[in-house]
Amino acid sequence: MEGIEIRIAMLTSELFPVFAGGLGKAVYNFAKSLENQLDITIFIPKLEWDGDLNCKIVEIPFDLTLHVYKTREKFSYAEDWDSRTQTDNFNRALTKLVSLEQFDIIHAHDWMTFPAGIELQKQGTPLIVHMHSTEYDRTGGNPRDWVVKMEKAGMEAADLVITNSRYLQCELEKLYGIPASKIRVVYNGINMAKFQKSFFGTKKLGPYVLFVGRHTIQKGLWQLLHAARLVIDKRPETKFMIVGKGPDTPSLIKLAAELGLHENMIFTGQVSEEQLVAAYRLADLFVMPSVSEPFGLVALEAAAAEKPIIISKTSGVAEFFYHCFKVDYWDIRRLASHILELLEYSPLSDEMSVRGFREAQNFTWDKVSQGLVHVYKEVKHG
């Protein structure tokens, strides 16, 4: 193997392409970028994973079916107890399997693997925990106490904590009391070539606005639907394509019907990677109106597909991406106004697309993954 001889055990509950959320994509792409530089083994639950990584993949013989993205009010006692029991059992099995090998660093991604990381650290291996989001983000500010305690315990025990934005770093300092001196920011990246595929000749829906993400309170879909009503009042031919699914899909479909959007709103559910790229490439513009978004990888994907983007100010991507519209997630009228501007003024839309594409080129996975290497070196060599 070429490069630095550091043996890394990555612990994660998701891994693209089985799970296509931000966590699973980040772990996959960091590993893909570094598999020829480092000795990486990825430990995952039973996913029947079928990706194309060259590094070693170890599946724990344990199904993990947690309700991660519900608000606390929507949890029943039985569900919460089941989630906690599953997490404990998964981490015990994870600890046993990782202990069979020798590693230089344990890199635990998000809270569901932190207990195993802590136990492995006690056995003498340095621990890095990687916060891709927090329980506060995922549940719309209604966290489960036991998950918050698990996140806090992992960060307090870790040798270093990685976040994907300064936005999330501030959240960790404020809500969990983690000192800034212990936190390192490593941004997520983008595969530019993937989003350059041509779909010339494909029949379009007409002008359409694209959203991609889980259907949860965190993502600002309620605000988007109300903004869509204002847009359609001015431009009735506009369609809104909502890609993804989640626990709140039924209530969102109901709201769309109540707002009279049934002819303009397309809920696709989960789509294949090829269909996702096509959705980006054929859209007129992209919106990410998240209430709280630690990073916002989908915004970079849209920029790589050369689309103008509108993002919420409460997102990690907003701190470094400039050629876009930024709105307060609650400002429905401003969101609708920006959508109409981009639909009606093609010179503005075209210029934003070109400049946004150039900006996205600064965040390829090969570039951002070197930040991860620096953190590994810091932990191993002090």
Quick structural overview:
It contains 13 helices and 13 strands. The protein has 382 residues and is of the alpha/beta class.
Task: Describe the 3D structure.
The chain has 2 domains: 7-189 and 364-381, 3-Layer(aba) Sandwich (Rossmann fold), CATH 3.40.50.2000; 193-363, Rossmann fold, CATH 3.40.50. It has helices at 22-34, 77-98, 114-122, 135-138, 145-157, 166-176, 221-234, 249-258, 273-282, 297-304, 332-344, 346-360, 365-381, and strands at residues 7-11, 39-44, 56-59, 105-109, 127-131, 160-163, 183-185, 208-212, 239-243, 265-269, 285-288, 309-312, 325-327. The two termini are 24 Å apart. By secondary structure, it is an alpha/beta fold. The protein is globular, with a radius of gyration of 21 Å. Strands 3-2-1-4-5-6-7 form a 7-stranded parallel beta sheet, with helices on both faces. The protein has 13 helices and 13 strands. β8 (208-212), α7 (221-234) and β9 form a beta-alpha-beta unit. Helix content is 42%, strand content 15%.
Work out the count of structural domains. Answer: 2
Helix % is: 40-55%
- Widest sheet: strand ordering: 3-2-1-4-5-6-7
- Tell me what portion of residues adopts beta-strand conformation: 15-25%
Q: Roughly how many Å is the radius of gyration?
A: 21 Å
CATH class of the largest domain: Alpha Beta
CATH architecture of the largest domain: 3-Layer(aba) Sandwich
Basic shape = globular
CATH fold field value of the largest domain: Rossmann fold
Order of helices and strands: EHEEHEHEHHEHEEHEHEHEHEEHHH
Which key features would you list for this structure?
2 domains; alpha/beta; Rossmann fold; 382 residues
